[in-house]
Amino acid sequence: MRWPTLFVSHGSPMLAVEPGLTGPALAAWSAAQGRKPKGILVVSPHWMGEGLALSTRDRQVAWHDFGGFPPELYQLQYTAPGSPSLAARVQALLAESGIAADLDPRRPLDHGAWVPLRYLYPEADVPVVQLSLDMGRDAAGQLELGRALARLRDEDILVIGSGSLTHNLRHVRMPQDAPALPYVPAFQQWYAEKLGDHDLPALLDWQAQAPGAAQAHPHDDHLMPLYVALGAGGAGFRRLNDEVSYGALAMDAYEFAD
């Protein structure tokens, strides 16, 4: 059985203690699979650089890469095993497509990785490798990268792109269930429709075609992991969650599969 891939919106770090609808949706998806993967490869915009790198820690730790949040958030951990062997496999697989990736033995899991993983696999018993986000790739480049990773699905590896379907921190408003700003549901609906139709030309031209694109993403980093997951996963599409958090953060999660 081939694993599907996931795109998850991690929103605010507060997701770790405020599950809303997103936490249960991720937990339900994991339970419905009836088994666990041999390993997880996760891409998050909180590790970005020119080119690619892979974490090779033997044991993961949760990096609290944020400030100004309640003390309870800084006590949370996610000590899943790492997997140097999986990192080496991903590096070799990318090399077959002419894509270079460095190995980083020090990099911990940023909150874009460990927060959703706490809901997907709370026992922290599945080995995790993090892949950095190549800031030099546009949507088409991220899709190409995902396609180079697609064979991992046949090797019992779950590929996750973690970001946020909308991500404009200047528009965040309290409380968590504040009404959505008008551009947010419009952007959500556009993506749901285009992904459902597998309309790649429109999806790759999202900045020109998606309603409210400039408001939804002043920077594109939190949207790019979606294209990695889409490229690795294929045309099949299922929307798992459509919550909006703090008025501006669309928390959509998608499953992609052949």
Automatic annotation (TrEMBL):
Highest taxon of source: Bacteria
Annotated SUPFAM superfamilies: LigB-like (SSF53213)
Uppermost EC category: oxidoreductase
GO molecular function: ferrous iron binding; stizolobate synthase activity; zinc ion binding
Cofactor: Zn(2+)
Keywords: Dioxygenase, Metal-binding, Oxidoreductase, Zinc
Every Extradiol ring-cleavage dioxygenase class III enzyme subunit B domain range: 28-238
Family: Belongs to the DODA-type extradiol aromatic ring-opening dioxygenase family.
Protein name (record): 4,5-DOPA dioxygenase extradiol
Species whose genome carries this gene: Achromobacter insolitus
Gene: ygiD
